Amino acid sequence: MTDAGAPLGATGPSTAGPVTRGSVVRVGAATAASALCGYAVLYLAARDLEPAGFSVFAVFWGAFGLVTGAAFGLLQESTREVRSMTYVEIAVGPRTHPLRVAALVGVAAAAVIALSAPLWSGRVFVESRWLSVALLAVGLAGFCLHAALLGVLAGLDRWTAYGALMVTDAALRVVVAVATFIVGWGLVGYLWATVAGAVAWLILLATSPAGRDAAALLTPGGTATFLRGASHSIAAAGASAILVMGFPVLLKATSGDLGAAGGVVILAVTLTRAPLLVPLTAMQGNLIAHFVDQRAHRLRALVVPATVVAGVGALGVVAAGAIGPWLLRSAFGADYHADGALLAWLTGAAVAIALLTLTGAAAVAAALHRAYSLGWVSATVASTLLLLMPLDLQTRTVVALLCGPVVGIVVHLTALAGKRAP
C-alpha cells in the first residue's frame, strides 16, 4: 500500500498543501464504508437480540464509544501539531513522538478503567460484567495508538492510509459480528465485535510504508507540552463522546432500567445521528487541517461546512419523519416501533451536535483548547441536567440532545470571534 503525500524530513513534513477535494473524497469513501460496517454490526445485533438484549449490547457499544471518543483528543492534537509544522519555523529543541505518548496514555487509561471498575461496572454492565471491563480496558489502550496514528496521517496529507485505517477498523468489527450471528455466540460475541477494530493500527503498520513513516514522526516541543494540549482535547472529546457514542450510558445513568422501550430509543438515536456524525467524526483530520489552513479567517471558514451540514440535516429531518418508522420496522422487526415525529426531532438534534462538532474542530485548529473543552463540557452538562427533567423518556431525550449542544456552540463561537488571527 502506498500513499501520495508530503515527504517526511527528519522531524516532519517539508510541505503540506491545503485540504483538497480529492482528500475529502478519499476520506468520504472510507467513511461511507465504515458507516455501512457500523450499520451492519447494529443490524446483526438488533436482529439477533431482542430489544431488551439489544439495550444491554448498546450500553457496552456506547461505553466503548465514550472512552474511544475521548481518545480522539489524541487525533485532534496530533493533527494540529503536525499540520502546524508547515506554518512555523521549527527551532532546535525537544521533540515528541506522538505514538509513544499515545501508548503511555493508553496504558494509563486502561489501568484506570480496570482499577476503578468495582465502583461503577455493576451499574453499567448488566451481563458479562468482567468481560466487558476487560474488553473496554484493552480495547481503549489499542485505540489510543489508532487515534494518534490517524492524527499524524491527517497532518501529513496521507489520506489513503488514513482511510485504509478507518476501513480496517470497521471491517474487523463486521467480521466478528457476522461470525457471531452465524454460530449463535449471542451477546458475548457482539461485545468482542465492538472492540475488534482496536488492532487495526497494527495491521496498517505491517502493510503500509506510509503508516510506518507516520508512526516514526517527531513533532517539535516536549512531551509535557503535547500532553497539555492533548489533555484539553481529550477532556472535550470525552464530553463529546458522552453525547455521541456514549449517550446510551448517559441515558441509563439518568433513567435506571431502560428495558425494551430504552432499546428502541437508543436504536432510534443511533440511526438518526449516524448519517451526519459518522462522517464528521471520521473527517476530524480533514476539518482540523482545513481550519489550520484557513487560520486567518476562522469564522468565515465555518460557513461552507456548516451550510452543508444544515442542508443535509434538513433533508434528513424530512426523510426521518416521512419514512423513518417504516424503515425501522422493516429493517429491525415489529418490536422496534417509533413514530415519525420522534425520528424527525432526533434528526434535528443530530444537526445540533454536528454543528457543535464543527465549531469544536475550528477551536482546536485555533489552539483554543480551553474554549474547546469548555464548549463540549458545557453542552454535556446541560444535556445531562435536561435528561433529569420529569418528562417521559422520548421527550427528555429529544430536549436534551437538541438544546444542550446550543450552549457549547455559543461558547466556541464566542472564543473564535475573540481570537486574533496570526
Integer average pLDDT? 83
Q: Biggest sheet: strands, sense, closure? A: 2 strands, antiparallel
Coarse structural class: mainly alpha
- Note the run of SSEs as H and E: HHEHHHHHHEHHHHHHHH
What is the C-alpha radius of gyration, as a whole number of Å? Answer: 20 Å
Distance between the termini: 38 Å
DSSP, total strands:
2
Helix content: over 70%
Q: Please list the strands of the largest sheet in the order they lie side by side.
A: 1-2
Identify the overall geometry: globular
Strand coverage percent: under 5%
Please mark out the parts with pLDDT under 50 across 5 or more consecutive residues, or reply none.
Answer: 1-17
Helical run tally = 16
Membrane topology: Multi-pass membrane protein
Main location: membrane
InterPro entries: Poly_Biosynth_Transport (IPR050833)
Organism: Mycolicibacterium rutilum
Task: Describe the overall structure.
By secondary structure, the protein is an all-alpha fold. It has one domain. 79% of the residues lie in helices and 1% in strands. Strands 1-2 form a two-stranded antiparallel ribbon. The longest helix is centred in the N-terminal third of the chain and has 34 residues, at 51-84.
